Give the backbone structure.
Amino acid sequence: MTSNDDKRATSLPDWDLWRHMPSVALWQFCALSLDVDPDSLEVRPGGWMSPGGRLSFEPCSFPSDELAATFDKRYRVLDGQEYRTTGRDYDEVDLAVCAAWALSIGWDIPAELRALAACGEARQPAASAALGAQEQTEPSGKSEPRDWQEVARAIADELDKKDAIAGAHDSVTNIADRVAAELRDRKTRGPRGPLSGATILREALQGRKWKRKR
Protein backbone atom coordinates (compact mmCIF):
# COMPACT_ATOMS: atom_id res chain seq x y z
CA MET A 1 0.00 0.00 0.00
CA THR A 2 1.35 3.41 -0.92
CA SER A 3 1.54 5.99 1.87
CA ASN A 4 0.82 9.69 1.46
CA ASP A 5 4.52 10.41 1.96
CA ASP A 6 5.34 8.18 -1.03
CA LYS A 7 3.12 10.40 -3.19
CA ARG A 8 4.82 13.63 -2.18
CA ALA A 9 6.72 15.48 -4.86
CA THR A 10 10.49 15.62 -4.65
CA SER A 11 11.12 17.41 -7.95
CA LEU A 12 13.85 20.03 -7.90
CA PRO A 13 13.66 23.01 -10.26
CA ASP A 14 15.34 22.75 -13.64
CA TRP A 15 17.61 25.71 -13.00
CA ASP A 16 18.98 25.56 -16.56
CA LEU A 17 15.46 26.65 -17.49
CA TRP A 18 14.34 28.87 -14.62
CA ARG A 19 17.54 30.92 -14.30
CA HIS A 20 16.88 32.27 -17.81
CA MET A 21 13.27 33.28 -17.14
CA PRO A 22 13.15 37.09 -16.85
CA SER A 23 9.87 37.02 -14.93
CA VAL A 24 7.78 34.46 -13.08
CA ALA A 25 4.37 34.31 -11.39
CA LEU A 26 4.27 35.00 -7.64
CA TRP A 27 3.54 31.38 -6.78
CA GLN A 28 6.32 30.19 -9.10
CA PHE A 29 8.83 32.42 -7.31
CA CYS A 30 7.70 31.12 -3.92
CA ALA A 31 8.21 27.54 -5.11
CA LEU A 32 11.64 28.36 -6.53
CA SER A 33 12.60 30.09 -3.28
CA LEU A 34 12.09 26.73 -1.54
CA ASP A 35 13.95 24.77 -4.25
CA VAL A 36 10.70 23.16 -5.42
CA ASP A 37 9.86 22.76 -9.12
CA PRO A 38 6.84 25.01 -9.85
CA ASP A 39 5.76 22.62 -12.61
CA SER A 40 5.33 19.85 -10.02
CA LEU A 41 2.72 21.74 -7.97
CA GLU A 42 -0.86 20.49 -8.23
CA VAL A 43 -3.64 23.06 -7.88
CA ARG A 44 -6.44 22.06 -5.53
CA PRO A 45 -9.96 21.69 -6.96
CA GLY A 46 -11.32 25.23 -6.85
CA GLY A 47 -7.83 26.46 -5.97
CA TRP A 48 -8.09 29.18 -8.61
CA MET A 49 -10.74 30.90 -6.46
CA SER A 50 -8.94 30.97 -3.11
CA PRO A 51 -9.34 33.95 -0.71
CA GLY A 52 -7.28 36.96 -1.76
CA GLY A 53 -6.96 35.67 -5.31
CA ARG A 54 -4.01 33.42 -4.45
CA LEU A 55 -3.77 29.89 -5.84
CA SER A 56 -4.15 26.96 -3.45
CA PHE A 57 -2.12 23.79 -3.97
CA GLU A 58 -2.44 20.19 -2.80
CA PRO A 59 -0.23 19.47 0.26
CA CYS A 60 1.16 16.40 -1.53
CA SER A 61 2.79 18.80 -4.02
CA PHE A 62 5.44 19.48 -1.37
CA PRO A 63 8.04 17.16 0.19
CA SER A 64 6.64 17.85 3.69
CA ASP A 65 3.78 19.57 5.51
CA GLU A 66 6.32 21.99 6.98
CA LEU A 67 7.48 23.05 3.52
CA ALA A 68 3.87 23.40 2.36
CA ALA A 69 3.18 25.73 5.30
CA THR A 70 6.32 27.76 4.53
CA PHE A 71 5.22 28.08 0.91
CA ASP A 72 1.80 29.40 1.97
CA LYS A 73 3.42 31.91 4.33
CA ARG A 74 5.85 33.18 1.69
CA TYR A 75 3.05 33.40 -0.87
CA ARG A 76 0.99 35.57 1.50
CA VAL A 77 3.97 37.79 2.32
CA LEU A 78 4.88 38.33 -1.33
CA ASP A 79 1.27 38.90 -2.39
CA GLY A 80 0.95 41.59 0.29
CA GLN A 81 3.81 43.65 -1.14
CA GLU A 82 3.37 46.51 -3.57
CA TYR A 83 5.60 44.52 -5.88
CA ARG A 84 6.71 45.70 -9.30
CA THR A 85 4.90 43.49 -11.78
CA THR A 86 5.88 42.70 -15.34
CA GLY A 87 2.94 40.69 -16.71
CA ARG A 88 -0.31 42.02 -18.09
CA ASP A 89 -2.23 40.15 -15.38
CA TYR A 90 -0.27 41.95 -12.65
CA ASP A 91 0.86 38.73 -11.01
CA GLU A 92 4.44 38.40 -12.27
CA VAL A 93 7.71 39.63 -10.82
CA ASP A 94 11.22 40.15 -12.14
CA LEU A 95 12.99 36.97 -11.01
CA ALA A 96 16.33 38.60 -10.19
CA VAL A 97 14.83 41.66 -8.47
CA CYS A 98 12.53 39.48 -6.39
CA ALA A 99 15.45 37.26 -5.43
CA ALA A 100 17.32 40.33 -4.15
CA TRP A 101 14.21 41.38 -2.20
CA ALA A 102 13.88 37.90 -0.68
CA LEU A 103 17.48 38.04 0.54
CA SER A 104 16.93 41.52 1.98
CA ILE A 105 14.15 40.26 4.27
CA GLY A 106 16.10 37.21 5.38
CA TRP A 107 14.56 34.41 3.35
CA ASP A 108 16.72 31.32 2.93
CA ILE A 109 16.80 30.74 -0.84
CA PRO A 110 18.72 28.36 -3.13
CA ALA A 111 22.21 29.23 -4.35
CA GLU A 112 20.87 29.67 -7.89
CA LEU A 113 18.55 32.47 -6.74
CA ARG A 114 21.27 34.05 -4.62
CA ALA A 115 23.43 34.28 -7.74
CA LEU A 116 20.59 36.01 -9.60
CA ALA A 117 20.02 38.39 -6.69
CA ALA A 118 23.21 40.30 -7.51
CA CYS A 119 21.73 41.17 -10.91
CA GLY A 120 18.48 42.15 -9.25
CA GLU A 121 20.20 44.53 -6.86
CA ALA A 122 21.82 46.28 -9.82
CA ARG A 123 18.55 46.59 -11.72
CA GLN A 124 16.37 47.78 -8.84
CA PRO A 125 17.73 51.37 -8.55
CA ALA A 126 17.48 51.88 -12.30
CA ALA A 127 13.91 50.59 -12.36
CA SER A 128 12.93 52.82 -9.43
CA ALA A 129 14.50 55.88 -11.08
CA ALA A 130 12.68 55.17 -14.34
CA LEU A 131 9.37 54.80 -12.53
CA GLY A 132 9.93 58.06 -10.65
CA ALA A 133 10.63 59.92 -13.88
CA GLN A 134 7.49 58.46 -15.43
CA GLU A 135 5.34 59.50 -12.47
CA GLN A 136 6.68 63.07 -12.72
CA THR A 137 5.90 63.39 -16.42
CA GLU A 138 2.51 61.66 -16.47
CA PRO A 139 -0.32 63.80 -15.01
CA SER A 140 -2.82 62.02 -12.81
CA GLY A 141 -6.54 62.05 -13.61
CA LYS A 142 -8.10 65.33 -12.42
CA SER A 143 -11.30 63.64 -11.27
CA GLU A 144 -9.55 61.24 -8.87
CA PRO A 145 -8.04 62.00 -5.45
CA ARG A 146 -4.26 61.83 -5.30
CA ASP A 147 -4.30 59.31 -2.44
CA TRP A 148 -4.85 55.83 -3.91
CA GLN A 149 -6.53 54.70 -0.68
CA GLU A 150 -9.22 57.34 -1.25
CA VAL A 151 -9.67 56.15 -4.82
CA ALA A 152 -9.95 52.55 -3.60
CA ARG A 153 -12.58 53.44 -1.00
CA ALA A 154 -14.59 55.42 -3.55
CA ILE A 155 -14.58 52.42 -5.90
CA ALA A 156 -15.55 50.13 -3.02
CA ASP A 157 -18.52 52.41 -2.31
CA GLU A 158 -19.60 52.20 -5.95
CA LEU A 159 -19.30 48.41 -6.04
CA ASP A 160 -21.15 47.94 -2.75
CA LYS A 161 -23.93 50.26 -3.95
CA LYS A 162 -24.34 48.22 -7.13
CA ASP A 163 -24.42 45.02 -5.06
CA ALA A 164 -27.12 46.50 -2.82
CA ILE A 165 -29.26 47.41 -5.82
CA ALA A 166 -28.87 43.85 -7.10
CA GLY A 167 -29.72 42.42 -3.67
CA ALA A 168 -26.21 41.01 -3.22
CA HIS A 169 -23.70 41.25 -0.39
CA ASP A 170 -20.01 40.61 -1.12
CA SER A 171 -17.25 40.11 1.44
CA VAL A 172 -14.72 42.89 2.00
CA THR A 173 -11.97 40.55 0.76
CA ASN A 174 -13.77 40.00 -2.54
CA ILE A 175 -14.54 43.71 -2.85
CA ALA A 176 -10.81 44.43 -2.41
CA ASP A 177 -10.03 42.07 -5.31
CA ARG A 178 -12.68 43.78 -7.46
CA VAL A 179 -11.25 47.19 -6.54
CA ALA A 180 -7.78 45.96 -7.58
CA ALA A 181 -9.14 44.99 -11.00
CA GLU A 182 -10.81 48.39 -11.40
CA LEU A 183 -7.62 50.23 -10.40
CA ARG A 184 -5.70 48.27 -13.02
CA ASP A 185 -8.25 49.29 -15.65
CA ARG A 186 -7.86 52.93 -14.57
CA LYS A 187 -4.06 52.55 -14.53
CA THR A 188 -4.01 53.78 -10.93
CA ARG A 189 -0.92 52.55 -9.10
CA GLY A 190 0.52 52.68 -5.63
CA PRO A 191 3.91 54.26 -4.87
CA ARG A 192 5.68 51.02 -5.85
CA GLY A 193 3.51 49.83 -8.69
CA PRO A 194 0.19 48.00 -9.26
CA LEU A 195 -1.85 47.22 -6.15
CA SER A 196 -2.96 43.73 -5.15
CA GLY A 197 -6.25 42.92 -3.49
CA ALA A 198 -4.40 41.99 -0.30
CA THR A 199 -2.68 45.40 -0.15
CA ILE A 200 -5.95 47.25 -0.83
CA LEU A 201 -7.71 45.25 1.88
CA ARG A 202 -4.97 45.88 4.44
CA GLU A 203 -4.30 49.56 3.76
CA ALA A 204 -7.63 50.95 2.54
CA LEU A 205 -10.62 48.81 3.49
CA GLN A 206 -9.89 46.77 6.62
CA GLY A 207 -11.38 47.59 10.02
CA ARG A 208 -12.38 51.23 10.47
CA LYS A 209 -10.75 52.35 7.23
CA TRP A 210 -13.93 51.70 5.25
CA LYS A 211 -17.59 51.30 6.20
CA ARG A 212 -20.45 50.27 3.98
CA LYS A 213 -22.90 53.12 3.38
CA ARG A 214 -26.01 50.97 3.18
Q: What stands out?
A: The longest helix spans residues 111-137. Residues 52 and 173 are 6 Å apart (CA to CA). DSSP finds nine helices and two strands in the chain. The chain has a mean pLDDT of 78.
